[in-house]
Specification:
heterodimer, A: mainly alpha, two-stranded antiparallel sheet, 14 helices, globular, B: alpha/beta, eight-stranded mixed β-sheet
């Protein structure tokens, strides 16, 4: 009853191909954007911005980028942390060496450098598939770890190997306050999500999905696997690189290669798998699950005033978190995005099912 | 009216995420405690955290707080991860009636990450024996306090010690270090010393968490350095000592920085670690000082101790945690002499930390006699003291094997000022004029 599309007649092709063909979805999206842009800025505390919303949004962006590669094109990658690292260090080098450049341009250039790195490490995908490819992309992770902790030029000769991002300003307006940072990150995330959503609906996205579903068949119907696979690596690394630059500049402020270590790659892959492979929405749900749940779990004992030792709390957090991952993957192997789709389907008839 | 209450309710719910639902009374000083009781660094993180928290409890139990201001605290688990540390910092910085007193990140990575945020939030960062070495320069790093020594101090003192055993000319020193900002910090000083003394420096990085060091020690065996300086933390240390035993490298020629010189590091190898040296940074594993007796009487006898057993009171890292907490408490106490006997804000604590003057009489009054040297900070010197001794593991415990050394500031100070000036230029900070603030 809440989700019936009865009466919504599509009289033009353009209506049928709209981003959100159902009116309820459109209203929901408008309401969601209104809440995140207009309501949250007035009510969220500094903690909520800095420790929860900003990291969530940045990692969601990285997950969107990874989902294009893994979920849509079927190329498993364990090099996401590396591409984030490339983005962050590229942005750092560009911003410190050419300080007058606009920050958006810096991030775009950082994304492009990450794209080149991504395509380079994507070349093996032309010959190997599946888990073997995952291992090959792992090389990117170790190479970048080595590169940025050993070659001093990239860290501007910092004695400790830790770099510190210059202040972020846009058109003379400093992006310093938690609110400004939040809106900056949010705008970029919305922009890239829109780009990603449209890309996967276009012929490029369809060529990715065809390659994912069966590469031989895709080749026979005229899709060039080289182009499909490398373009997926390129677009994915661009978005991941921008997310890395945001993580360094906006969230951490100063960082070392360990901030983008192999665990980051794993956690992003888990976000995509738990959220839902081949779903932009799934990337957000997965990021929310992986980023927010541990924080909430550690704080639950405090909210209820239960005296619990820090170590027990940390172990409990890991156990419950692990159990929930197993639970969700058993209940819905297609991820949280699929659960959402099932819920929408049920809502068409609820509360009056047949 | 209705709208107003709705707005209030929504704000209350949103701020609930940030604050525990515990009512705060005004005469309280909140101390955030960033700890790691889990993960690869837990063996060393746990005793430090126990010491820190126990000392806060001791102040409440024995003295009734600092001049009547009770200490409250909350632990936050970072697992030595930078992003978790930042989350903890954001969570705890605004708690208590006057906000967080000061942060002790106990991680160089977290220190780097929150150093940019602290001046904005007006919370001092205490890095007792670690952190950014150039933050000794308080005119640029107004909010950082690397009290009682930095990595550069440590590297300098270790070189002083080995050069006192004979000229280092033509010798070889291997630095086995944790491949992170923590491990890389001493390198500039070591390189400077290599030039000055004419020894060869071999740098051997070990990747986090340092459980796999076979290749590193193979290189040690091939290169046969005259000394090995170990710059590790957590499980990396005990692994390194075991590997040294495996390749037959003499423990007598091994020197650990103070983060590689605790019981947790040598005990896994027990008697085989005999002869291993460490830098004892003011204190070692003393257990029978007045403060330890007070701890047993006032905290453990009442079953309020954080460590499982009163036997854990003392020990290198426990003492270090206790001293770290003591410095926070003393900074608050110093600030109270200027601002009155009430809870202090971060800004007031910063003044207290910059004007610390812990002399011998004060050390005796606190019960730290014998494990602490006088500390005096100023606007220009946020370190306060830079003395250390060498202690050696005899198979069961640590004992001092050298006299006091003091870091050579003639060499270090220009390096500190150069690095600080570079940081100030990068971040567009105008250094305060220390001559004016006094």
């Amino acid at each position: 009853m809440f989700y019936r599309e009865n009466g919504q007649f599509k009289t033009r092709y353009i209506d049928d191909q709209a981003l959100l063909p159902i009116a309820q979805d459109r209203w929901f999206m408008v309401a969601l954007l209104a809440v995140v842009f207009l309501v949250i800025p007035f009510f969220a505390s500094e903690y909520l911005f800095r420790a929860i919303l900003i990291p969530f949004l940045i990692l969601a962006l990285a997950a969107v980028g990874l989902n294009l590669l893994v979920g849509y094109c079927g190329q498993i990658s364990l090099g996401t942390g590396a591409f984030m690292m490339v983005g962050a260090y590229a942005a750092f080098n560009i911003a410190t060496r050419i300080p007058e450049l606009n920050i958006l341009l810096v991030f775009a250039l950082a994304g492009l450098i990450s794209t080149v790195a991504g395509m380079f490490f994507g070349i093996p995908s032309l010959r190997i598939k599946g888990l073997y490819l995952a291992v090959a992309t792992l090389a990117a992770q170790f190479f970048c770890d080595w590169l940025f902790s050993r070659v001093k030029w990239f860290t501007n000769d910092s004695s400790s190997g830790s770099v510190s991002a210059p202040a972020v300003t846009m058109f003379g307006f400093p992006i310093e306050s938690p609110l400004a940072k939040y809106l900056f990150v949010l705008s970029l995330v919305v922009f890239f999500s829109l780009v990603a959503k449209n890309l996967v609906r276009s012929h490029i996205g369809r060529s990715w999905m065809a390659t994912r579903d069966m590469d031989v068949a895709a080749e026979i119907i005229g899709i060039r696997p080289v182009f499909a696979k490398l373009s997926a690596f390129a677009v994915s690394s661009f978005i991941v690189g921008v997310a890395g630059a945001l993580w360094g500049f906006v969230h951490l402020g100063s960082w070392e290669p360990a901030a983008f270590d192999v665990n980051r790659s794993f956690s992003l892959l888990f976000m995509v798998i738990i959220g839902g492979l081949g779903s932009i929405l799934g990337s957000f749900l997965g990021a929310a699950f992986i980023v927010l749940l541990p924080i909430v779990l550690t704080q639950i004992p405090h909210w209820f005033g239960i005296p619990i030792s820090t170590a027990t709390g940390a172990h409990l957090e890991a156990m419950i978190f692990g159990a929930l991952i197993v639970f969700f993957l058993i209940v819905e192997p297609h991820g949280l995005a699929r659960l959402w789709a099932v819920a929408k389907d049920k809502l068409r008839l609820w509360p009056f099912p047949h | 009216m209705n709208f107003k209450s709705a707005v209030l309710a929504v704000t209350a719910v949103s701020t609930l995420l940030g604050s525990a639902a515990i009512a705060q009374t005004p005469m309280e000083q909140f101390v955030p405690v960033l700890v790691y009781r889990t993960g690869a660094y837990a063996p060393n993180g746990i005793p430090w955290a126990n010491g820190f928290v126990d000392y806060l409890k001791l102040i409440n139990e024995r003295d009734g707080g600092i001049n009547g201001v009770k200490l409250t605290f909350e632990e936050c688990e970072t697992a030595y991860a930078t992003d978790k540390g930042v989350e903890c910092y954001e969570r705890l910085k605004g708690k208590g009636p006057t906000g967080a007193t000061a942060f002790n990140p106990l991680s160089t990575g977290v220190t780097f990450a929150i150093s940019d945020k602290a001046p904005v939030d007006k919370v001092p960062i205490f890095t007792t024996g670690y952190g950014r070495s150039e933050s000794v320069n308080g005119s640029v790093f107004q909010w950082n306090f690397p009290l009682m020594g930095t990595y550069w101090t440590g590297a300098d003192i270790l070189v002083q010690h080995v050069s006192s055993k004979g000229s280092l000319k033509g010798k070889k020193i291997a630095l086995v270090y944790h491949d992170s900002p923590f491990g890389k910090e001493p390198i500039p000083v070591m390189e400077e010393h290599a030039k000055k003394h004419g020894f060869e420096l071999v740098k051997l990085p070990v990747t986090h968490p340092g459980l796999e060091q076979k290749a590193t020690w193979l290189q040690v065996r091939q290169q046969k350095p005259d000394y090995v300086f170990l710059w590790g933390w957590g499980a990396m240390n005990s692994t390194a000592i075991k590997e040294a035993i495996a390749v037959g490298y003499p423990r007598l020629q091994m020197y650990g920085v103070w983060w590689s010189a605790a019981e947790q590091d040598t005990q896994p190898a027990e008697a085989a670690a005999k002869g291993y040296n460490g830098l004892a940074f003011q204190h070692s594993s003393e257990r029978d000082n007045i403060v330890h007796k007070d701890m047993a009487k006032n905290v453990y006898a009442k079953n309020k101790g954080t460590a499982g057993n009163v036997k854990d009171v003392g020990g290198v890292l426990y003492n270090r945690g206790m001293i770290s907490a003591m410095l926070v408490v003393e900074a608050v106490r110093t600030a109270q002499t200027k601002y009155g006997k009430k809870p202090m804000t971060g800004e007031q604590v910063r003044w207290g930390a910059e004007n610390l003057n812990i002399d011998n009489a004060r050390i005796k009054a606190m019960g730290f006699e014998g494990i602490l040297q006088p500390i005096k900070t100023s606007c220009n010197d946020h370190e306060g003291a830079r003395k250390a001794r060498i202690h050696t593991w005899d198979g069961k415990g640590w004992s001092y094997t050298s006299d006091w050394y003091e870091a050579d500031m003639k060499m270090l100070r220009p390096m500190i000022d150069a690095q600080a000036a570079k940081y100030a230029a990068d971040k567009k900070i105008t250094p305060v004029n220390c001559a004016k603030t006094g």
